[in-house]
Design a protein that fits this description.
It contains 10 helices and no strands. By secondary structure, it is an all-alpha fold. The chain has a single domain, classed as Ribonucleotide Reductase, subunit A (Orthogonal Bundle), CATH 1.10.620. Helix 1 runs parallel beside helix 3. The longest helix has 33 residues.
């Protein structure tokens, strides 16, 4: 078993905050841009059910972990539970703007049903892959302020807060995976997780793209020009998808661990406004 590389001085601290309650929000809350707004809205719709799946997958393999990892799992669960609550509220705002998100939610249900039909270790593999996605997206959001520039304050703060905590707990599912597969060969572990990442990536990109286009269609925005605008937003400027390519590739390299890239400096830079909401983890 390869030695885990989660920093010894890492703390995972839930921050119990509520965003946007009672605040007016623009239909296109991100800089009056329907493309950027649709991208973040489509992602948010996936989070409540997705994060419940992550909690379920990690908890199944917590028996026998080290006391430190047990504490990290508990903090991970608390963070994800609060994320779920806040994205339910965010998604309520999306629906209040007149968007029908039922088709987006149905796709998430279909994707999770496929994962749950497989052995629990497969669900854990899918979880560590999706946690890598959320961690590298979180890094991109905090590293480049352009991604949320011009956003309504409550919505933008929600995404920055979520990003902080995704970076903080980015190694938990992976360390649980290393524990759960401790009797596997390195080759078997790599094959399974690489295969899982390829499948998860294909389904994630397909599902989220369909969701974004669904929301844009509800704004009357359809056709090749709209798809080109989405591609340019994702891979041009500000290029949120483009920024994920290199860290996504890193997942397949020998010796990968989420904390091979220690980006806690981004947390320290962004966390001051949320510090008062930190919960005790003991």
């Amino acid at each position: 078993m390869a030695k885990a590389k989660t920093p010894a001085d890492l703390t995972i601290t839930p921050r119990d905050l509520r965003f946007g309650r009672g605040q007016a929000r623009r239909r296109w809350w991100l800089n009056d841009d329907p493309i950027g707004t649709a991208l973040f809205n489509a992602l948010s719709v996936t989070f409540p059910k997705g994060e419940a799946f992550f909690i379920e997958s990690v908890r199944r393999f917590r028996d026998g972990v080290s006391p430190r990892l047990a504490d990290e799992i508990a903090a991970f669960v608390r963070q994800e539970a609060i994320h779920t609550r806040e994205h339910v509220a965010f998604n309520r705002h999306v629906a209040e703007q007149g968007y029908d998100v039922s088709r987006l939610e149905a796709r998430v249900d279909e994707e999770l049903a496929i994962a749950r039909a497989r052995p629990p270790i497969v669900s854990l593999a899918a979880t560590l892959c999706l946690e890598h996605f959320t961690a590298i997206l979180a890094h991109a959001i905090l590293a480049d302020p352009r991604h949320l520039e011009g956003g309504d304050q409550g919505a933008a703060d929600l995404w920055r807060w979520h990003a902080i905590e995704e970076i903080e707990h980015k190694g938990v599912a992976y360390d649980v995976w290393m524990h759960a597969t401790r009797d596997w060969s390195r080759w078997r572990r790599w094959v399974v997780k690489a295969h899982a990442m390829l499948i998860v990536t294909a389904r994630f990109l397909s599902g989220r793209t369909r969701g974004i286009l669904d929301l844009l269609e509800q704004d009357g925005l359809t056709g090749p020009r709209v798809k080109w605008r989405l591609f340019r937003y994702a891979f041009g400027r500000p290029g949120v998808a483009r920024s994920l390519v290199r860290p996504w590739i890193a997942f397949f390299l020998p010796g990968f661990h989420p904390w091979n890239h220690d980006d806690r400096a981004l947390i320290n830079k962004a966390d001051s406004e949320f510090a008062a909401a930190r919960l005790a983890t003991a």
